[in-house]
Specification:
This protein has five helices and no strands. By secondary structure, it is mainly alpha-helical.
Length: 127
């Protein structure tokens, strides 16, 4: 039962995070024009800022459901880049510089490669 409640907290946060992502990114993109994907950049930067603050706040004795609601649910739907940022900052703070660099390199290159591969496969199959 506790697992189900935790999932409901994550889902609720995700619901509001996804809607927030759409509204913020769309508004920002319209505000600054289409010359650069500033909408995505804005939610990534905002999410990274919020997760830095939330990670510090939730490091105190806070119920895990609220951490799941905000960090996993809301910020996970707003942007997965925020988690990526926090993980790398944690690695750097722990003195794991080579792991942080490797994580950044692999995340950027492999996700770009995966997207390119999917587009290429789609074009070959559905042409």
């Amino acid at each position: 039962m506790k697992s189900l409640i935790l999932l409901l907290f994550i889902g609720t946060g995700g619901f509001f995070g996804a809607i927030s992502r759409y509204l913020i990114a769309t508004y920002t993109q319209k505000l600054f024009g289409g010359f650069f994907p500033v909408g995505t950049l804005s939610v990534n930067v905002l999410g990274s800022f919020i997760i830095g603050f939330a990670a510090m706040y939730f490091s105190q004795t806070i119920q895990p459901e609220y951490k799941a609601l905000v960090i996993t649910g809301f910020l996970g739907a707003l942007t997965t880049f925020s988690t990526f940022s926090l993980e790398n900052v944690t690695l750097l703070q722990d003195g794991e510089f080579s792991k942080a660099v490797l994580n950044i390199f692999l995340n950027v290159t492999l996700t770009l490669a995966a997207t390119i591969s999917a587009i290429t496969l789609f074009k070959r199959v559905y042409g």
